[in-house]
Structures are given as structure tokens and as C-alpha cells.
Amino acid sequence: MTRDLPSLNALRMFEAAARYQNFTRAAERLFVTQGAVSRQVKHLEDELGCKLFKRDGPRLQLTAEGSQLFLCVSEGLATIRRGTRDLRRELATPTLTISVLPSFAATWLARRIHRIHERLEKVEVRIASSYEPVNFDHQPDIDAAIRWGLGHWPNTYTERLLTERLFPVCSPAFIEQHQEPQSADDLARLPLIRPTDEFDRWEEWFHAAGAVAPAASEKLRTTDALLIQQAALDGRGVALGRGLLVDEDLKAGRLVRLLDTSIASEKSFYFVCPSRMQDNEPLSTLLEWLRKEAETSEHVH
């Protein structure tokens, strides 16, 4: 007699494999071996009598049957995760877990987070540093997030908190070696620390300053905002600093701002939470605190 419900463990491993389209990645997320995931998926296929995946080079691709099952299983597991999380909340000390980008957590938030405890005395606020995309169905322990982007996160409540100004910065030691530029044309002759093309705003800054941007130097290109900032602190060149992230280094004299021209960042920092959590009282209190802190921040508009 066929069971109505396959093994929950097999379904869980199938869902992870389908989500990441890779047995190895699924195994890493579930803290099991790749072989365990492969065996459980094979058992599930044998029990159902159909193939759930087909190979597309190193990636897995769902079959039509696999896609149908994935929709059901992912929705069911998301419901279980939400129910479990809500039950734990009722039984434990109230907590709010906020997922925050490491660069934002280490700079703007780290200098202010102690003040939120004065507003939420009976709620434990936890900060989870992460680059993971916002997906609350697959991150049941996360109540809200602060992310940098254009504000497009489906099925969420989203509110813009901060938009930064971008301007050139470098270390005092770099100035001593190269002499402080008096114009954008002077700056164009100095080594520039540049992100990859997707995030490079130097051309716009030079345009705003009435000058032409120099060609990019590949050996100085990087991606992470903190790595760019650290490169400037190390005296490797001039970075287009993001106001919120460089503020403390400017005040401490570790970095120096060059020239007066600044441009607005295309992307902003947003508060994001599941739509169903929008009216949660502790979360509303946290958001109100974030709004007030954002209003008093420098280098924003």
C-alpha cells in the first residue's frame, strides 16, 4: 500500500536541492553530506515513480513533475516554518531579529543600536549580519531586514530609510605623497579605487564636477564597500566614499574628503519586513526609532 505522505526528511532535502539547483549546495545548507541528499532524492523518485531532476551540466533542472512537487513542498515547509516560529515566540522572551548588511552593521548601526534598548526594554533585539537576499519564507528566524537597493522586494512592506551622498575620500598619508587636488582634473590624475562596472559611479561624479573621468585601472577594482573603504584607509588611492560608511573615519581624521562635489547614491538603505508583520508593535517601535535616527544622520538627503 502506497503511503499518502512521503518521508518528510526526503521532502526537505528535495526542496533544498530544487531551490539551489545543486546537491552540494543543498547539503551545505542542511549540514549533511552530498551523498545523503542524493540518496534521499533517489528514494523519493522511486517512491513517486517519476524523475524529479535532470542534469544540465553541473546544474540540476527540475522536470515537469519536479516543478509541480516543488511548488507544493516549498509552500508546505514555509507554512511549517512560520507556525513553528510563531509558537516559539509565544513561549519565549519576545525577540526581534534584524538581518543587516555587514557594512551597515559595522558603521551606522553599531554606533546607535544601544539606544533602541531604551525604547524596547522588554524585547531582545538581535542583529544578524548577512548578504543573503531578502526571502522571509526561507528565513523564518528573521523578522525584518535592512538592505541596500532600489526598494523592489515582492510581498514585503518596504520603507526607504537613508540615501547617501557619494564624494572622494583618501587617507592623510596619501595626500602627503601626492598633494591634495585642487580640481576634478587634478583628481583624475590620481589613482582611483573603483568597484566593478555595475557599481562604478566615478564617471557620474566627474560629470557633476565638470570634468572627464579617466579610464579605469583594472588592478584597483574591487566590489565590497568595506574593501574599497579599507583600500582608501591603507593609502592605495582615492575612493568614492559612501557618506554613511565613511562618516566616522572622517570625524576621526583617518580619511579626508576631497573637493566639494557630491552625488546622490542610486540605491538607498531600506527597512524591509513581511507584509503580515507590518503592524507588529515591537517592529513598529523599531521602525519609528530607525526613522528618527535616519533624520539626524549626516551625508543624506
Topology, element by element:
Blueprint: H1 8-20, H2 23-30, H3 34-48, E1 53-56, E2 59-62, H4 64-91, E3 95-100, H5 102-109, H6 116-119, E4 124-129, E5 144-149, E6 156-162, E7 165-170, H7 172-178, H8 184-188, E8 192-195, H9 202-208, E9 221-222, H10 225-233, E10 238-242, H11 243-252, E11 256-257, E12 263-264, E13 268-274, H12 281-295
Parallel strand pairs: 3-4, 3-5, 8-9, 8-10
Antiparallel strand pairs: 1-2, 5-13, 6-13, 7-10, 7-11, 7-12
Radius of gyration: 24 Å
Please name the CATH topology of the largest domain.
Answer: D-Maltodextrin-Binding Protein, domain 2
CATH C-level class of the largest domain: Alpha Beta
Count the beta strands: 13
CATH architecture of the largest domain: 3-Layer(aba) Sandwich
Low-confidence stretches: none
Commentary on this structure:
With 301 residues, the chain is of the alpha/beta class. The protein folds into three domains: 8-83, Orthogonal Bundle (Arc Repressor Mutant, subunit A), CATH 1.10.10; 93-162 and 267-295, 3-Layer(aba) Sandwich (D-Maltodextrin-Binding Protein, domain 2), CATH 3.40.190; 165-264, Periplasmic binding protein-like II (D-Maltodextrin-Binding Protein, domain 2, 3-Layer(aba) Sandwich), CATH 3.40.190. The chain has helices at residues 8-20, 23-30, 34-48, 64-91, 102-109, 116-119, 172-178, 184-188, 202-208, 225-233, 243-252, 281-295; strands at 53-56, 59-62, 95-100, 124-129, 144-149, 156-162, 165-170, 192-195, 221-222, 238-242, 256-257, 263-264, 268-274. α9 (202-208) links the parallel β8 (192-195) and β9 (221-222). The longest helix is centred in the N-terminal third of the chain and has 28 residues, at 64-91. The protein is globular and about 75 Å long. It starts with 7 loop residues before the first helix and ends in a 6-residue tail after the last helix.
